[in-house]
Amino acid sequence: MNQFQLVVALFFTGIAQMAMADSPLTFTLTSYHPGELSLRCEERLSRARDLGFQAVTLTPAFLVDEAGERLVPRSEQPVAPGEIAACLARADKMGIAVVYKPHLEHRATLQGSHEHVWRANFKIKPDSDLIETVFGDWSAWASRPIGGEIGSPTTWVVLAAELEKSIALYSDRWLEALTLLKLSVVQAERPIRFGINLNWESIFALDAGQCASFSELLGKSDFLAFSLYGDFRRARKHSTRFEAALQAGVRGLYDRGQPAGCDWASGGSVQLPVPKLAIGEFGVGGNLRRSYSDVPAPWWRRGRWVKNRRALFKTFFGWREDKGDALEFTSLWTIGVFDPFGIHEFEQPSRILDPALTFSLRTRRWRPPS
Q1: 323 vs 23, 194, 252, 263, 357, CA distance in Å?
Q2: What residues form DSSP beta bridges with 55?
Q3: What are phi and psi of 99, to 5 degrees?
Q4: Cα 161 from Cα 57, distance rounded (Å)
Q5: pLDDT of 154-166, one tens digit each?
Q6: pTM score, whole prediction
């Protein structure tokens, strides 16, 4: 490395470290089949770090049965033994902070090219087996002594990601699961932040009798993340759309309790203990009207298509920057058609990159000079 390259590297490293001081911006690293993490973890972490990311949201998939009510046996899980732990250890050595957010998936989804059965509809009842299967590698890693190679020791863990119906039915069981998860890392030296990830709008009402457990689950969580999707067609010019979507998620907490007669759902004096908010997922998936969908760009409109999404991302990043440390973290989901930073582009050549947006990410310049 020559002197000029060293100066540039130190410049970008300093910018990234300043960004981490506020609220981590993460890219998402998924795993759907045995051996994927072993094959891709180091390369993707390196690529993302070169872009300026200092944190990763690690999202391995775990398989549920056909009814979506329990995990399949460990021998059938789509994760090879030890590969989650190895990837976590690699992130440590590279000084990359970790948000651990496992996804429960249906077999049809893992066998296809898109989400066939949405995890929000699963009726899974958490137990000690789920904690050991899904979080065992993470808890073993989080409990290791902190070495000098670790750049950012804090780690975040999402207990339940988008499991709307399950939380509506079994908030009491998820509260017990949170206790089990905390006990599994009681000897950990590193700071650990615990939370759940709900969807951007209220999906299912709480079951009768779950009001107190849901409230306590929020109260014992360090953060509450929302998967921030919705109609963002006008958001590329108006950052208020993102704030409105986030606050709609908070209002949805009360909506969930209305049919169950929760005393905090009628607008009375009792308030939910809403923890610090986070963005569990943000991406456009190729469609601005339904940003969770994945729609390819028509070839004849590709230039304008990219320009609109670039503007949306810049507005989003500017909004996030204005919020400072008000957000616990922000996880980007750029695994669909629009992969602007090129972290996953070697998988599908049809994915669309955006060098201009990548430059903005490197320099943290989201707005034109004033």
Answers
A1: 9, 21, 21, 31, 20
A2: 26, 97
A3: -105, 115
A4: 12
A5: 999 999 999 999 9
A6: 0.91
